[in-house]
Amino acid sequence: MKKLFFLLVFFSLISCEEYLANYTGNGYTTENYSGEWKGDEYTGEFKDGLRHGLGTYTYANGDIYIGEFFEGDITGLGTYEFADGEDYIGEMKDYTKHGVGTSYLTDGDIYSGDYENDKMHGMGSYFYENGSEYVGEFVNDKFDGIGTMYFKDGSVWAGEWKNDEKHGKGLQIWADGDAEFQYFENGELKRRVCSDY
Prior knowledge:
15 strands, mainly beta, single chain, disordered N terminus, 197 residues
């Protein structure tokens, strides 16, 4: 009989906590949405009626975000699992990748570095599934600025980039150790100078 009494008290307290969370807008609870957000679900912390703190948001399309919320928005550190297989771990701001993070893309490529408004922007490293790697500056999802490409065959190109193309001065080093200085315009080789490196 005592066990039954304690169980009733325990479940009553849980119910009260959920009731208070729903009534006051503070605490920890689960919300299922309708209308424009039909099928979405949030489980986590609330403050003043807004998602605030740690929580999990599951979208009807299969996307899942686990991490920090701020005043109702996905803002802070978290993990975003996309339904198409892409995964992102890092900083978010207003529902977008913003700050430092790592994306595991569906084609096997990996990007780790700075994001701004959902785009690779700043310093970062892009690892290709085939073994090549770019390390350097990005602007709006493109190689842009100073960067180095390490090709899977062992050769290296270090220099200036624009819009994903070699653009400006750079040093080409082949896998056998030979090297030369090169000058490109929009991906087209314009000049070369042999070097003993």
